[in-house]
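Late entry, evening session. Most of the bench is empty. Finally got around to the prediction I had been postponing all week. Sequence below, unchanged from the version circulated by S.P.
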Amino acid sequence: MRIYRLYGAMDIRREEAPAPVPAPDEVLIRTAYVGICGSDMPRILTGEGVPFFPSTIGHEFSAVVTEVGSKVRGLRPGDRVAAAPRLVCGSCVHCKSVNPGQCISGRFLGLGVPDVGGFAEYNALPEKNLVKLPPGMSLV
């Protein structure tokens, strides 16, 4: 798969990497469109705020489902989805109190998760991190 990795300030490289294999509760998606958010710009321009290099950025993106894990029930290949940018545990006090933004072990797509982000052609993400788009809604 194609993947664009940030190696430092103004140093983005297109590379090839194996596509991820989804776990039983994960969905393999192919990125359709990715936005460059205002929070991405300082990381691209200066490299500041990036926990490690190389890093795959892009936390605002749409995709098409290509494969589902054996425990996935709500999505199927061909479904169009948007990725929720925060990976949460779902079991800590914050997640259980409807405040997943404060998840103790939460991580952001496109920042702090190796080779996961909208600038990767494929991502394997938990089903709970994907929102199925309604029929007729554009991927853009």
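Two things to note before I forget:
The first strand starts at residue 2 and ends at 8.
Residues 90 and 96 are 7 Å apart (CA to CA).
Will write this up properly tomorrow.
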